[in-house]
Design goal:
Putative polymerase, globular, 16 helices, 412 residues, transmembrane, membrane, transmembrane helix, mainly alpha
């Protein structure tokens, strides 16, 4: 039985439809807003609520542990809101997405479903990316992206630039394109409506295919991911693929404790850099993003570091600063610890988890899009299904206590 599952067992359709819905609902709303009727932020939130609620409904089984986890999470969220005081449902939504889709993936316990979801999603992203890239005028006729973001309240009308037209602000590279410069300044947004998520999604597809040597059409899935990275000219996505490959190779000899402390070591490093650096010139490159995230982290008040500040400044350019401001340091430690110590049943699953941890640690330097359902739904579904899969053969007993002990992991 490949992957520890019965290859003749039919795969459920509803989880797959849910993942495709999470991928494409923004594009559907953009089409409606452009061609049918105006939409607003309530409609967008309503779609997300339906998707997350459905994932929870399908993912929660008879095991009491997930219910206890949700009870602790909601209690902590209510406590923070009472101490601020501020009602902030977005903070709940941001951190409920990983929980819901992880549980959904674990309940399916069949990585073949994640294989199929990755391939179908990748093909959808590439097809629409090519459509946009090769027939931009026709694409924006049906999908006026900037109009959609204004309608949902993400972009103020005064911030709309005539240079990018109907595209999102990052739809054109202001300087020269990094990947295949002859393609010009246009960066494909595809179904995500903005190119940053397209590049991030390409990296996710690459990471999954890298860790699934037994999957059908593995190389097609990886090629779809690389194509998405090139079409969106995602320097970040290309770099993640390189670093994740190194992490994949190093995973078997890396203690779990290293990955537990990794984001907090980075957080401390950025804080020190922000306090001691006299650099003030910001550039649109990775060094500039590191400087900017350092500035945002050091701009937080002590109350904000512990999630107790009622102020909600713009922190979307730093996932580290955003996370602290939303759920506080203790909440971040708790969520990251749950992710790292969630039991996986095979060495292959540990390798994938290490690659995901690498992706998250790097992504939070430049963005808070780790909480975007467009890319997070499939990522956390993959993580859940990977953790639940026993692999092609029994997992060995770890020789060191700090290295994952798969024999002690609980099933499913």
């Amino acid at each position: 039985m490949a992957g520890g599952v019965d290859p003749t067992r039919p795969m459920p359709i509803l989880p797959l439809a849910l993942l495709i819905g999470a991928l494409t609902f923004n594009m559907a709303l953009c089409f409606i807003n452009t061609n049918v009727m105006g939409i607003n932020d309530t409609m967008v939130m309503g779609c997300e609520v339906v998707l997350v609620a459905t994932a929870l409904y399908l993912g929660l089984g008879r095991n009491a542990a997930p219910y206890l986890l949700l009870a602790v999470f909601f209690s902590y969220a209510v406590l923070l809101m009472a101490m601020r005081p501020l009602i902030d449902p977005k903070a709940v939504r941001d951190f409920l997405i990983p929980v819901a889709f992880y549980l959904l993936g674990k309940s399916c316990s069949d990585p073949r479903l994640a294989d199929r979801a990755a391939l179908i999603s990748g093909l959808i992203v590439v097809v629409f990316g090519l459509f946009e890239f090769l027939a931009l005028d026709l694409y924006v006729t049906y999908f006026n992206i900037i109009k959609y973001y204004v309608a949902r309240g993400t972009v103020a009308p005064s911030d709309v630039s005539s240079q990018t037209g109907a595209l999102f602000a990052s739809g054109l590279r202001p300087d020269s394109r990094t990947l295949l410069p002859f393609l010009g300044p246009h960066r494909a947004s595809s179904v995500f409506l903005e190119p940053i998520s397209t590049g991030n999604f390409g990296a996710i597809l690459y990471i999954w295919a890298l860790n699934r040597p037994q999957m059908a059409k593995r190389w097609l899935t990886m090629a779809a991911g690389m194509t998405a990275i090139v079409l969106s000219d995602s320097r970040f996505g290309a770099n993640v693929c390189i670093v994740a490959t190194v992490a994949y190779l190093a995973a078997p000899i890396t203690p779990r404790f290293v990955w537990l402390v990794a984001p907090f070591v980075m957080l401390i490093g950025f804080a020190i850099y922000g306090f001691v650096s006299a650099e003030v010139n910001w550039q649109n490159n990775f060094a500039g993003r590191m400087l900017w995230t350092s500035r945002l982290i050091t701009s937080l008040s002590p109350a904000a570091v512990f999630g107790l500040s009622p102020d909600k400044p713009f922190l979307s350019d730093s996932g580290y600063a955003y996370s602290l401001n939303q759920i506080g340091l203790f909440g971040v430690i708790g969520f990251w610890s749950l992710f790292i110590f969630a039991p996986e049943r095979s060495p292959q699953a540990w390798r994938f988890k290490v690659c995901v941890a690498t992706y998250i640690c790097l992504l939070m330097i430049v963005s808070d899009s780790v909480y975007s359902i467009k890319t997070a739904a499939l990522l956390w579904f993959m993580t859940g299904s990977s953790d639940a899969d026993a692999g092609p053969e029994p997992a060995p007993i770890a020789e060191r206590s700090m290295v994952p002990n798969y024999s002690a992991a609980t099933p499913g």
